[in-house]
Amino acid sequence: MKRGLEGPPPEDRPTPAGRRNKQGIRIDPEVEATHEPRRTVISALVAHEPGVLSDVSGLFSRRQFNIESLTVGPTKDEDRARITVVVEEPDPGIDQIKKQLRKLVPVISVRELEPDAMQRELALIKVDAEDPAQVSAVADMYDATTVDSSPETATFEITGARQKIEAAIDTFGQFGIREISRTGTTALARGTEETAAAVNATESTATEANHDKPYQTANDD
Amino acid sequence: MSERAAKVTPADEEEQDDDQITDSAAPDAAQEIDAESETTPAPVTSGAEAVVRALENAGVEHAFGVQGGAIMPVYDALYDSDIYHVTMAHEQGAAHAADAYGIVSGKPGICLATSGPGATNLVTGLADADMDSDPMVALTGQVPTELVGNDAFQETDTTGVTTPVTKDNTFSSDSDTVGSDVSEAFALAGEGRPGPTLVDLPKDVTNGETDREPDAPSVPETYEVQERADEEIVAAAAERIENSNKPVMLLGGGVIKGEASEACREFAVEHEIPVITTMPGIGAFPEDHELSLEMAGMHGTGYANMAITHCDTLIGIGTRFDDRLTGGIETFAPDAELIHVDIDPAEISKNIHADYPLIGDAATVVEQLTAAVDESPEATKWRAQCQQWKSDYSMAYDAPEDEPLQPEFVVEALDEATDDDTIVTTGVGQHQMWACQYWTYTEPRTWVSSHGLGTMGYGLPAAIGARIAADDDQDVVCFDGDGSFLMTLQGLSVAVRENLDITVAVLNNEYIGMVRQWQDAFFEGRHSASDYHWMPEFDKLAEAFGAAGFRIDDYDEVADTIEEALSYDGPSVIDVHIDPEANVFPMVPSGGDNGQFALTEDQL
Q1: What is the pLDDT of residue B580?
Q2: Chain-centroid distance, C-alpha A20
Q3: Domain CATH code at residue A170
């Protein structure tokens, strides 16, 4: 077929030596590694209005962020709700989640919690209770509360960190678990620190994005 | 278009006069009241009137839409308004027209549709505006609140459907606040990073009684925009620019939307920095300027792609680093430190990591940079290299008289026959790329196209919106492809009814040309469903609509026919039969290395 423009063909053109990784970061030979996913808790304070949960969950699904759990509930201010999201993403993805969340008009502030934040989940576990004594011993071990019992089953309520609940589920497994229902994680920052506060929201928007990643000053000149 | 709006007004005033004369005994008193009523409009009595009042308060002059059951109360209120409503042939056209109106005027374009199918027909246009950050407000009718959720006649969960493709949307629930909802949607559409907003209007809410005047347009408290970038990072970026040897400016659509073209031009010229634009950024910098390398990306110029690949400092302004621009991330400007100016923090490091993130309004941040950069970079060699690439990879093409008509020739001929401020709209496909490559754009807001979503059929309705927003002495030219034109050509009926002076050039190759090009390159020439040999004769079709129809088959017909079509006062369609085998080059294959663009088929 005829046609096409004139000029040196691709193989005759110079190519730069550099490369970027799949997160668009220029590869420094010393830190070649691509970011691995990590698990983190993001708390968002939002306007308590219809559709806000769907806005938030829709954002996660259409941007393909890997969401582990999502909880929502009212706060002391009746016009505000708190959404707690547990995600597993590489660092640039976590930054994106925070920025994209902040972009939603009903979202007031967004914060990623420190690893030492208080994180709690509630689970209801219904087990076979053919051996009530043993079942109750396990329940005591995990501070589980009995919420229902019948000749065949016992149902326990457990609150705690995700690891504790998973350990309890593992241990209850020996009796035969009939059903489980879990709430997903809710969390608050420790001490006087505010989890995701309405105050200073202005600062949190853009300056956060500016300072999330320390920028490098020119070093190759 | 203001003439048309003026036509409506006298009739309205006559009616008002009649009313007032019957109301008052003395003619003098009537005159007084008349003078008063011009400054203080009658109080609103319904939700629908509040909706229209909100638009009027926002300075809206034109709206595009289609009437229907659930939106009827709003149209009834529009009947008494000075807002000129353009009735479209399809809601998709209304959305694209409003989108183009927003691009050309810089103010949010308004479109209206009824519930259900009306609203869903807007979705493509909303998605298009959302991808391109075009300011636009959609008002949709909704079934009465008590029927919502019952699968009522013409019911759709419009806010649910449009959430992913709008900047923000609202379901209005109260006649007292519906006007303020519209005001807020208008403010949100234009503020910060622009985008489409939507207000869903249940019929009982618009029909409901209210005397509440809408609030003035303002964004909600939770919406914040940072205007100025962090000074510390500006200083660091300035130092980087001063010390660079291969700087390049990359101007995106945000430069045009942020009215930063002038500041960018001054900055580039002062420091002699070569300038590349993205496709939405076309017009931000004059393409006939020596520093201009035109557009980079998949079908960008060879020189722009060489420069972007080899630069050491990339000053990206108002661009979101779309994959059509970057090609494969790994090979995109791999040696460059990125200074990224954007008003939307979420664009920073989304696709390409920003070494110097500058969040703020493009014009403001470029002024900050202008103040911070003291010395121009030493880039004489680099500029010479860019000029060398310009001549190595020039966008020249062969047009032998004895071969079929080349599309590039037609684009250039139309460019030559029109003024610099001519507005070009396009559909999507090969013709769109030729219109990018071979038209020389020099002014912002003269290039109106569907970039991010790539919506075939965008061209004609966009030309309608652009025509209405444009100055009367500005020409509007639409390039369309045969396949693209066929998707929305019912809009011709609107152009004829409104007598809009638009020249449509259909670059007709009887193919979905871009698909055919890819099939040739990547699917062994198997033209599955891309062969459109059943195309109508567009010139005759135009005449059937009441427009002027022309046809071009050969080179010697081009100049005269274009002149005739341009001088026709009203819509004209030129069916241009081009070489069916013509392809778009240069081309960076999807996900490829920008520097490895192909110049011919066999380089793909």
Answers
A1: 96
A2: 27
A3: 3.30.70.1150
Domains of chain B and any CATH numbers: 41-207 (3.40.50.970), 231-392 (3.40.50.1220), 407-585 (3.40.50.970)
Please tell me which residue of chain A has the smallest CA distance to B348: A209
Q: Tell which of B133, B198, B222 to mutate to test the A interface (max A CBs under 10 Å).
A: B222
Backbone CA torsion sign across B355, B361, B365, B366: positive
In a domain, A157, yes or no: yes
How many structural domains does chain A have? Answer: 2
Please answer yes or no on whether A217 and B337 come within 8 Å at the CB atom. no
pLDDT category at B4 given cuts 50, 70, 90 is very low
From B203, B246, B257, B390, active-site residue: B203
* Mean pLDDT, rounded, for B387-405: 94
Task: Indicate whether A158 and A105 sit together in one domain.
Answer: no
- Say if B603 is an interface residue toward chain A (CB within 8 Å): yes
Q: Cα(first)–Cα(last) distance of chain A, in Å? A: 48
**Residue A207 pLDDT > 50, yes or no?**
no
Q: What is the ipTM of this complex?
A: 0.88
Residue B514 known to be catalytic: yes
* Overall residue count recorded for chain A in this entry: 221
Per the structure block, which two tokens stand in for B482?
């045969």
| Active-site annotation holder among B16, B154, B385, B596 | B154
3-class secondary-structure state, position B574: strand
pLDDT of A35 reads 81
Compare CB distances from B359 to A92, A108, A209 and report the shortest one's residue: A209
Q: Do B396 and A209 touch (CB under 8 A)?
A: no
pLDDT of residue B21: 42
- Indicate whether A85 belongs to any domain: yes
Q: What is the pLDDT of residue B560?
A: 98
| 8 A C-beta contact, residue B496 and residue B569 | no
Q: Which residues of chain B does A207 touch, with a Cβ-Cβ cutoff of 8 Å?
A: 226, 230
A102 inside 8 A of chain B by CB? yes
Residue percentage of chain B with pLDDT more than 70: 94
Does residue A100 sit in the same domain as residue A162?
A: no
Residues A103 and A142 in one domain: no
Q: DSSP E strands: which ranges in B90-172?
A: 109-113, 136-142, 168-171
Q: Look at residue B404 and tell me whether its pLDDT is greater than 90.
A: yes
Residues 6 or more apart from A110 whose CB is under 8 A from it?
A42, A43, A44, A45, A98, A101, A102, A196, A204
Q: What pLDDT is recorded for position A50?
A: 86
User: Which residue is listed with tokens 């902040």?
Assistant: A102
Q: What does the pLDDT look like over B460-499, one tens digit per residue?
A: 999 999 999 999 999 999 999 999 999 999 999 999 999 9
A107 and A124 fall within a common domain: no
Looking at the structure, tell me whether residues A84 and A148 fall in a common domain. Answer: no
Specify whether A42 is located in the same domain as A88: yes
Contact at 8 Å (CB) between A81 and A61?
no
Is the pLDDT score of A208 beyond 70? no
Which domain-ending residue is among A54, A86, A112? A112
**Catalytic residue status for B249:** no
Which residues form the domain of A95?
A: 38-112
Residue A68 lies in a domain: yes
Token couple for B91: 């809601």
| B contact residues 243-302, partner A, Cβ 8 Å cutoff | 243-244, 302
Q: Which of A1, A2, A5 is best to mutate for the B interface (most B CBs within 10 A)?
A: A5
Between A and B, how many CB-CB pairs are < 8 A? 173
CATH number at residue A67: 3.30.70.260
- The verdict on residue A9 lying in a domain is no
Q: Which single residue is written with the structure tokens 């959430």?
A: B163
Q: Which DSSP string do the residues of A135-197 spell out, in sequence order?
A: HHHHHHHTTPEEEEE-SSEEEEEEEE-HHHHHHHHHHHGGG-EEEEEE---EEE-STT--SS-
Nearest CA in chain A to B335: A18
pLDDT tens digits for range B524-574 = 999 999 999 999 999 999 999 999 999 999 999 999 999 999 999 999 999
In a mutational test of the B interface, the residue from A23, A210, A216, A219 whose CB has the highest number of chain B CBs within 10 Å is A210
Does A29 touch chain B if contact means CB atoms closer than 8 Å?
no
User: Would you call B519 a catalytic residue per the annotation?
Assistant: no
Per the prediction, chain A carries an average pLDDT of: 87
Segment B77-92 mean pLDDT = 98
Instruction: Report, as an integer, the average pLDDT of B423-434.
Output: 98
